[in-house]
Structure formats: C-alpha cells, structure tokens
C-alpha cells in the first residue's frame, strides 16, 4: 500500500521544510507549492489525498485558492486543512464556509496536526511509529 | 453664511410655563431658532422620529409620562439629540437622576435668567457634540490597538512556528541522535517557545476581553472532571520542581453551569501560577467543595505553599499586566495577564474570584461558579404569579450533518451560530433557551422552554425553521435541521406550595422530557 500524498502550500520555505520532515517521518509523501497559482497546478498534477494550506500567500491568498479548488470538480473533494498564523477567532467561520475541514493556528502542536491529518484521511487514530530519515534521504530534500 | 436655525423641541404641558419659556427666546434673532411646542410625550416621540430636532427641552411632569421614564423614552427615540430637562423647585434630585439617564443638563423653572436659556441650549449642544467626538475617537483608538496587536501577534507567530518545528524535529531524533545534554538544552528551548506562545495568546485574549468579544458557551459541566484533568496535565511541571500537586474533592459535587473550555483555561492558569510561585519541595492542592454560605455555588480553591501575597496586593493581582514586585520570586515569567483573564472569565460565567493570603503563608485562590439548576434557568420565564398555571411547551431543535460532522470545530461553530439564531426567535421574557444539555450524540440539540400552548409552540417552530432555511450556512455544508415541540401539562400549583418548590416540580417534568428527547436520538444514531 503506497503512502498517502499531502500537498503543502506555504510561501515560507522553513515551514515547508519543517512540515516535510515531520510528515515524511509519519509515512506521508509530500509535494509543495509556494503560491496561489502553483498550488492549483500542483493539485491538478498530483491529485493529493489532502491539502495543507497557508492563508498568507502571494499570487492569490488562501481563500482565493479555496475558491478555485472548490470550483473544480475533481479538486473539490480533496480535504483541506488550513494552517495559518492569522487569528483563528477572526477567520474560522470564513474558513469553514469556504469548505476547509479545520483551521489550525500556527504554531501547531505536532500531535494535534497529525491527529487532524489522520481524521481528514480517514485513518485510525493511533500514531504510527516514526520513520527516521537516513543521511542520504535528508540530503535529497529540496528545501 | 447664515447660520442654520436651531430646531428646538419643547415638550411642556403647562401653558403658563411654556409661555414663559417662549418669552425667553423673544430677545433672540427670530430666524436663529425654530421652536416646536408639544404637550404630550407620545407626540414628542413621533416628532423626534422625524430626525430634524437639534435639542429637546423636556418637562418631567408630563401627563403621559413619569419623571425618569420621559427622559428614557426621549433618549431612546433620538439618542443623538441632546436633552435638557425642566423641573420644578423641589425636584432637583430627580433632575440629577435624569442626567444619569442621558440628559445633558437641567433647568429649574422659575429660576431661569432671561438670557440663560438660549445660552444653555447652545452649551448643551456643544457638550453633546464633544462627547460624541470623544466617543468616536475612543472607538477608533481601540480598533487601531486591536488591529495593531492582531498584526503583531500574527507576525510573531511565523518565526515562532519555525523554532517550534525544528526543535521538536531535533528532540524526536529525526535528524540524528542526541546526547543527554543536547536533549536537555533543547527541552529548555521548547519550554520557552511554549511560554512565548502562551504570552502571544494571552495578548490576543485580552484584546478580545476589552472589545467584549470573549466567547463563552455555557453548559452542564463537571468541575471534578476538569480538576482531575488539569492536575494530570500539570503533574509533569510540578514534578520538575518536586512540588506535590494533588486534588481534593469531597462528596458529591453537582454539575455547574459553565463553559468547559473556559473552566479548563481558568484552572490551568491558577494551577500553573501556583506551581510557579511555590519553591521546590512545596505543595499545591486543588480543592472542590460546595460553598457553605450559598448552596447554589460550587467553590474551587487552589492553594500553594509559596511566599504568599501581602494583604494590600490581594486585589491588585487581578489587574492587567500586574506582576509581583517581589524580587525573590524567580521565574516570574509571563505578561501578567493570566489573573486578569481569569477574573473576566469567572465573572462572565456568573461566579466570583478572590485571593486570600499572608506573606510567608502561601496563597489560596478561590473561584465560585453557579450550580447547574434547571429551576434557576427557567425562573425568569415564570416571573409573576399569573404564569404559575400557564401551559408550557418544550421546543426541540436539532441540527445535524448529512455526511457527518467534518470536524469538531465545524460542529462547534455551527452550534454557535444556531444558538445565536435561536436566541433571535424568542420572546426574552416568555421563553428561555437552555444552555447545552447534552454533549453526546450525532446531532446538536437545542431546548427552549416556552410559556405558551400548542399554538405558540407551532409558531415558534415555524419561525425557527423559516430562519434556518434562509441562512446560507444550511445550504452550504449540507446541514439538516428539524424543530418540533412537546407540550407539558400545566403543573398546577398546590396551595401553600412555595414558588421555589413549584418551579422544582416544573423543572423535573421538563428534565424528564429532555432526557427522553436525548435518548431517542442516541437510539436512532446507534441503529
């Protein structure tokens, strides 16, 4: 059984790297986009099982990305988790109305993030044993 | 440029008094003012609604109005128009009260100098204008502060996230093994990251408090559960300082009417503070009891064996940004907002919070919260003798999701707006929307106790369904909704039965119905 694929959309390279390491260790494959336009292109190309979306993006913020995702028949069904530094209180309603499954506020607790991901993917609740990255694999990380 | 004529409304039923007042304007330029004279309050309210009045001169002894009530009605009809009340010689106290209700000034009939009236009018208008401007500026400043804090906290979060991510990656050995010192030092970094995070959250919480935007959702809550959870969660922090942290719950503690998330927040702040201000090897205990002086409240006491608080500080510690001036207290990290937030949360849930202490003898932080009591909750709808025999209807509204709730957040958010919407469908003096009565089950259930019969029940459910249908929330995430009602036979009040006992009986019947409704849905979801 192949790993589930997660698309990470965030313009902060540190965030992308951090999430990559964490998600890979939890047996997920990861692809990336750094802005609004690229996110739609990458989503179409890879058809990920889940999208983790930041709100503060160049070339179309997170909400406009959501709009485009939900307007596209094949992409609309991909669950979206918003992970943002913006104020949760002020944005939650809008995020949920736009179709997001959850709104997690940065900095996100690792356990909480993974639990929400598992739920979004319909996986059982127990955490998996972490996969430790070996040297050569780490060097291959793009960011 | 010709100055616009001042539109004055004079509401005075005494012809003699009115004549005298009109005389006072005779010395003014005729087109500098326009006086409208009305005799009754009801006519005045209609005139004010037209919106052309610049200032109102109001007699407090009108035939269809009584004293302060006239002021309130006039103020309500035109809140942006300044008001001057006219009173008799012996009514000065009443006039002073009128100022509290919104009047700009008062004039004693028979004591007004000739040129004083027009001048008083102009001053009143000027004062009123300045007050409005000050208020606008204050609102603007608050908004600016909110936006500033929001922006700052937003900016601070991103670098904080990166630090957190990579420290945890290192600590989880995802980048290779660590020796003991490395692990230990990284734990220190992590601890401080969490401290920073909590400071940023506190900052935001405080702006919400001040903007009146604190969200509190009351429901039947168990304090002992919350205490046990908090003690378990903070056991590690206590152990790190070799502090004995324990809970002390005696007897059967009834549920309270509170917000469980906020209760947790309060407990964590209090216990965390206690741990921080207690030296190594000390004790912190969390005690739960019924309040001796008032069985309608449960009291929580968090005590520590720390340095204590001097008596003149025991009230000041709840002030915003207050930090202990005692230099001996190491590790007094934080912004000093915790207790301020606690006090706000406790008061908003109907309780009280206070500190008792003496230097060197530790401190006890006490919190009271109201017991969850259905009779108390429905009492407002039953106000007045005549309602004792009225029929009662229980309106049950359920909100569900076709595909199952996407997440707990979605559920909580929908529940919140549904609650707001239902509140708008009620008559606040006849109906009571109960706090959340059940936290299990696939659907969100809302109960309204209405003093009405079947016809009324029908009307309420129709109103609710109509409003729910309109809202886009429903169409969008595929929510389902239904609203039904059940009648409760009028519980006739026995002779000599006290109001309290009668309410208890009624409440018991209502609770029975509620339990039925809840279990019927549990059965349905299990099928």
Helix content of chain A: 40-55%
Considering DSSP H and I runs of 4 or more, what fraction of the residues of chain B is helical? Answer: 40-55%
The main sheet of chain A comes to: 5 strands, parallel
Proportion of residues in β-strands of chain A: 15-25%
What sort of overall outline of chain A do the alpha carbons produce when their principal axes are compared? Answer: globular
Distance between the termini of chain A: 27 Å
Outline type of chain B: globular
H/E topology pattern of chain B? EHEHEHEHEHHEHEEHEEHEEHEHEEHHEH
Mean pLDDT score of chain B: 83
- N-to-C span of chain B: 81 Å
Tell how many strands the DSSP assignment of chain B holds: 16
H-E order of chain A: EHEHEHEHEHH
Strand order of the largest sheet of chain A: 2-1-3-4-5
Radius of gyration of chain B: 30 Å
Rounded to the nearest angstrom, the radius of gyration of chain A is 14 Å
Strand content of chain B: 15-25%
Mean pLDDT across every amino acid position of chain A: 86
Count of DSSP H/I helices of chain B: 14
Tally of strands of chain A:
5
Structural class of chain A: alpha/beta
Oligomer: heterodimer
Please describe what this structure looks like:
The complex is a heterodimer of chains A (143) and B (527). Chain A has 143 residues and is of the alpha/beta class. Chain A has helices spanning 13-25, 36-46, 62-71, 88-97, 110-120, 135-139, and strands spanning 4-9, 28-33, 50-53, 80-84, 102-105. In chain A, α2 packs parallel to α3 (62-71). Chain B contains 14 helices and 16 strands. The longest helix of chain B is centred in the N-terminal third of the chain and has 56 residues, at 116-171. In chain B, the strands form four sheets. A five-stranded parallel sheet of chain B has the order 2-1-3-4-5, sandwiched between helices. A five-stranded mixed sheet of chain B has the order 7-9-10-12-11. In chain B, α5 (116-171) packs antiparallel against α6, α7 (223-240) packs parallel to α8 and α8 runs antiparallel to α9. Chain B has 527 residues and is an alpha/beta fold. Chain A binds chain B through residues 12, 14-15, 18-19, 21-22, 25, 85-87, 89-90, 92-93, 96-97, 99, 101-103, 105-108, 110, 116, 119, 130, 132-133, 138, and chain B through 150, 153-155, 157-158, 160-162, 164-166, 168-169, 172-175, 193, 197, 204, 208, 213, 215, 406-407, 409-410, 413, 417, 472-473, 476-477.
